[in-house]
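Give me the fold.
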Amino acid sequence: MIDALGFEFMQNALIAGLLTSLICGIMGTLVVVNRIVFLSGGIAHAAYGGIGLSFYFKWPFLAGTIGFSLAASMLMAAVSHKMKHRADTIIGVIWAVGMAFGIILLDLTPGYNVDLMSYLFGSILTVPDSDLYIMTVIAILMLVLITYYYKDLLAMSYDEEFARIRGVRVKTLYFGLIAMLAVTIVLVIKVVGLILIIALLTIPPFMVEKYVTSLMQMMVASSLLGAVFTVTGMWMSYYYNLTSGASIIMVSGVAFLLSLIPDLTRALVKNGRANIPR
């Protein structure tokens, strides 16, 4: 892949992939430990509503999509906070309706045929310098916010009652976390696609969770593992002429399945011993 880096588009793609790994490693850790994976998937799919609005009314892409995604994410956050026993159902409805709404608006957009596949798997090989600047700003801003609120996020993630006793404004922090997640998804979805965002938000944190002893270690390890998946997937896509986003997802998925083998083996052995007559 070294020879491929002589091309500017490959350099941009690699930088975009590494920035995405960093962003998703940080946010994905918070998503996994706060058990809001389904909510993050709902936000990612509902963002299609904002995409449809932006194209139909000829609004700036970021303004329209971020506005719609923030509204949808705040509704999901309110539901998950107040009606936990029905949260998955309502989030699923918002997820489906938001995506359908966006696709219908795209169909109705006069004189413009949008390639929906580009928003599913992204177009990482065509990332312009302007998107790299935006992603860099996001990454820096996120690092600043996470560092400043780290102790509060740590307390909220593992014990909400303890966080409240310490004086943490849990509700405000939770809604802020969801808002930051929504903005992150929108700003990255155009580059790497909806499916890759969900994969990098969930797979690396899940895999490293059992091997780390702190939230910060989990963020660092998730970012590094995401970077490994990204580079490996891009290498495969370059040499075998495959879609980059799908290749990265497949590498992540295979690694995820392999990581489950030791746990499944131990479970089978334990069940086998339990069934042995005494």
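The chain has one domain: 3-273.
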